[in-house]
C-alpha cells in the first residue's frame, strides 16, 4: 500500500482545528478522520489552485453497513494539496468505498477508481481503502484520484453513477412525530421530549441528546452521524416507546433524502382517568375560598358514566349536603351508545323527572340529534348536529316547540373547538376564539356529548376565550382565562378561572378514578 493511511501530527492538528471550528461539541471518547488530496496522489495532472471545493465520501463499518453515503465535506487548501474537514466517528475499523472531488459548481473533477474497474489499472491502490479510528486520534486517509473528463463514464471508475445528494457531514436530519391514544381519542397536539442516542458496534452509548418536541406536526431532529446504530425514545403519560435505527436506515430515511420517512413514537395510554368528585370554590370573606358546589360521578363496569349528582350551594355543613339534582344515564346495552339522559330535580320533595334527553346516531357513530323533553318548562327542543366532510366545522341547530331556536356553529382543530358563534335567525348573538393546553380534558372521556355541548367536546383544556356578545343576551360574568395544575398523567388537578374586568376568581379541584384500557 502506497502510504494511503497515515497518522500525521501536523495534519492531524490542522484537521482537528478545522473540525472544531465547525462543531465545538466534540467527544473525547471518539476519534476523527480526514481525507487529503495531495498533488503526489493525482495520477494525471495537478489541481488548479482553488479549483477543488469539496470531497464526497461513502464509508462502511466492519460489518459492511453504510455509515456515510455520499456525504459532502468541505476542503481546505493546505500547502500543495487539500485537506477535508474532520469527521468525528466512533472507534473501530472502517472502509472508504467511494471518493470524489467537486469543484465550486458541484461538478465532479476527480474520482478514486474502484478495484477491477477500467480506471483502476492507473492507480497503485484502488478503492476500497481500510482505515481505523482510535480514541482521541485523527486518522488521515489519502486516496489516489484520477481526473474525470467529459468523455468518462461513471462505470469506468466502478461507480453506478456520479450523482449524489449533498448531506451535512456531521448531522443527519430525521423526521419524528409523537401520537398517543387516550381512550378512544388520538392526541397529536402534545408537548414532550425525545431522546436520541448513538452507539458503537459493541452497543456502547457514545452520544445522546434530548430534543423538545412540539406537536401536532412532525419535528426534525438533527442526529450526529457516524455511529453504528441509534435509538430514539420518548416518555409521556405513562407510555415509554423507542425505535432502533441502523446507520444505513438513518441515512436512507433522512429528512432531506429522496425518500424521507417520518418515525412515529407513542402508543396507547394504559390508564384513563375519569372524575369522581369535582369541587368548586368561590371567593368568600377575609380572603377565604369556601366550597361552592360538589359534583359526583359514578360509572358502570365498562367505565361509562351512570349517574352524575350535583350539590349546589354546598358546604361542609351536613345540612347543605342535599343534592339539588342528578342525572341518570341509560345505554343501548352495557357497553353500547348512550340512549338517554334523565335529569331529576331533588331540591324539592318529592323529587321529580324534570328533563330527558334522547340520542340518535349516524352510521359513523357520531351524534346526529338530541331531543330534549323539558317537563319543568313544558317545552321540547331538538338539537341537530351536522358536520362538514373534513370534521373541521359543525353546526348545532336548536329548535323548540314554542317556535324559538338558535344555531351554534364551531370550528374544530385537532379535536378542540377553536372558534364559535351563535345566531338567532339573521341576528348574531355572540362569537369567540379559544386556545387550549396540550393536556387531557377529563370530561371528554365521560363518553357522551351533552345537549348544550358544554366542556365535554374538546380533548384538551381551555386556556383562554374572548367572547363578544352583540345581541340576544349579555351575561354579567364572562370567563376569560384559565390556569391549571396537572398530575403526572396530564390531567388537571386544579383550575383557576379568571373573569373579564373582575378581580374575583373561582377554583375547581378534581379527583379521579382510574380505568385500565
Explain the overall architecture:
There is one protein chain. This protein is elongated. The strands form 4 sheets. It has a 17-stranded antiparallel sheet that branches. Strands 1, 2, 3, 4, 5, 6, 7, 8, 9, 10 and 11 form an 11-stranded mixed sheet that branches. It has helices at 9-22, 247-252; strands at residues 5-6, 31-37, 54-61, 66-78, 81-84, 87-89, 92-102, 108-111, 129-133, 138-141, 146-147, 171-182, 185-187, 191-199, 205-214, 219-224, 229-236, 239-246, 262-268, 271-282, 291-299, 305-312, 325-331, 338-345, 352-361, 367-374, 379-387, 393-400, 405-413, 416-424, 427-436, 462-465, 468-469, 479-486, 492-499, 505-516. The protein folds into 3 domains: 5-157, Domain of unknown function DUF4458 (Immunoglobulin-like); 171-268, Immunoglobulin-like, CATH 2.60.40; 271-370 and 415-516, Porin (Beta Barrel), CATH 2.40.160. The two termini are 64 Å apart. The chain is mainly beta.
Alpha-carbon distance between the two ends: 64 Å
| Number of beta-strand segments | 36
Q: Over the alpha carbons, how many angstroms does the gyration radius reach?
A: 34 Å
Averaging pLDDT over every residue, what do you get? 86
Low-pLDDT runs: 1-25, 44-50, 165-169
Number of domains: 3
The structure class reads: mainly beta
CATH architectural grouping of the largest domain: Beta Barrel
Helix content: under 10%
Overall spatial form:
elongated
Amino acid at each position: 500500500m502506497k502510504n494511503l493511511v497515515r497518522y500525521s501530527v501536523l495534519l492531524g492538528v490542522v484537521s482537528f482545528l478545522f473540525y472544531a471550528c465547525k462543531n465545538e461539541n466534540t467527544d473525547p471518547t471518539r476519534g476523527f478522520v480526514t481525507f487529503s488530496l495531495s498533488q503526489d496522489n493525482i495520477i494525471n495532472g495537478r489541481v488548479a489552485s482553488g479549483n477543488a471545493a469539496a470531497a464526497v465520501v461513502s464509508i462502511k463499518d466492519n460489518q459492511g453497513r453504510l455509515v456515510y453515503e455520499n456525504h459532502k465535506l468541505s476542503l481546505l487548501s493546505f500547502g500543495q494539496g487539500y485537506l477535508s474537514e474532520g469527521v468525528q466517528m466512533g472507534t473501530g475499523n472502517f472502509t472508504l468505498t467511494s471518493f470524489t472531488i467537486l469543484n465550486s459548481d458541484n461538478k465532479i473533477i476527480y474520482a478514486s477508481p474502484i478495484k477491477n474497474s477500467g480506471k483502476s489499472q492507473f492507480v497503485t491502490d484502488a478503492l476500497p481503502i481500510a482505515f481505523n479510528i482510535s480514541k482521541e486520534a485523527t486518522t488521515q486517509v489519502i486516496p489516489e484520484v484520477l481526473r474525470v473528463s467529459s468523455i468518462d463514464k461513471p462505470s469506468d471508475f466502478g461507480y453506478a453513477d456520479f450523482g449524489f445528494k449533498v448531506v451535512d457531514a456531521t448531522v443527519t436530519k430525521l423526521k419524528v412525530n409523537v401520537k398517543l391514544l387516550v381512550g378512544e381519542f388520538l392526541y397529536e397536539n402534545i408537548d414532550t421530549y425525545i431522546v436520541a442516542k448513538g452507539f458503537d458496534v459493541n452497543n456502547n452509548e457514545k452520544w445522546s441528546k434530548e430534543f423538545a418536541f412540539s406537536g401536532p406536526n412532525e419535528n426534525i431532529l438533527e442526529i450526529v452521524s457516524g455511529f453504528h446504530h441509534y435509538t430514539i425514545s420518548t416518555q409521556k403519560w405513562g407510555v415509554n416507546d423507542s425505535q432502533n435505527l441502523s446507520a444505513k436506515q438513518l441515512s436512507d430515511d433522512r429528512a432531506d433524502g429522496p425518500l424521507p420517512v417520518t418515525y412515529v413514537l407513542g402508543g396507547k395510554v394504559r390508564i384513563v382517568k375519569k372524575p369522581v368528585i369535582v369541587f368548586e370554590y368561590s371567593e368568600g370573606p377575609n380572603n377565604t375560598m369556601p366550597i361552592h358546589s360538589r359534583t359526583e360521578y359514578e360509572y358502570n363496569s365498562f367505565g361509562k358514566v351512570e349517574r352524575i349528582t350535583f350539590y349546589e350551594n354546598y358546604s361542609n355543613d351536613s345540612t347543605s349536603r342535599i343534592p339539588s339534582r342528578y342525572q341518570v344515564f341509560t345505554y343501548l346495552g352495557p357497553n353500547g351508545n348512550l340512549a338517554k339522559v334523565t335529569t331529576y330535580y331533588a331540591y324539592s320533595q318529592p323529587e321529580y323527572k324534570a328533563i330527558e334527553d334522547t340520542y340518535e346516531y349516524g352510521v359513523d357513530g357520531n351524534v346526529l340529534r338530541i331531543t330534549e323533553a323539558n317537563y319543568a318548562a313544558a317545552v321540547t327542543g331538538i338539537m341537530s348536529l351536522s358536520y362538514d366532510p373534513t370534521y373541521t366545522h359543525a353546526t348545532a341547530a336548536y329548535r323548540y316547540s314554542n317556535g324559538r331556536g338558535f344555531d351554534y356553529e364551531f370550528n374544530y382543530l385537532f379535536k378542540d373547538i377553536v372558534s364559535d358563534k351563535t345566531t338567532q335567525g339573521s341576528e348574531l348573538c355572540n362569537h369567540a376564539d379559544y386556545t387550549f393546553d396540550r393536556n387531557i380534558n377529563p370530561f371528554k372521556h365521560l363518553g357522551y356529548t351533552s345537549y348544550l355541548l358544554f366542556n365535554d367536546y374538546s380533548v384538551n383544556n381551555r386556556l383562554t376565550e374572548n367572547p363578544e356578545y352583540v345581541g340576544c343576551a349579555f351575561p354579567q360574568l364572562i370567563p376569560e382565562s384559565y390556569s391549571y395544575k396537572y398530575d403526572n398523567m396530564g390531567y388537571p388537578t386544579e383550575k383557576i378561572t379568571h373573569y373579564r374586568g373582575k378581580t374575583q376568581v373561582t377554583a375547581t379541584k378534581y379527583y379521579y378514578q382510574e380505568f385500565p384500557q
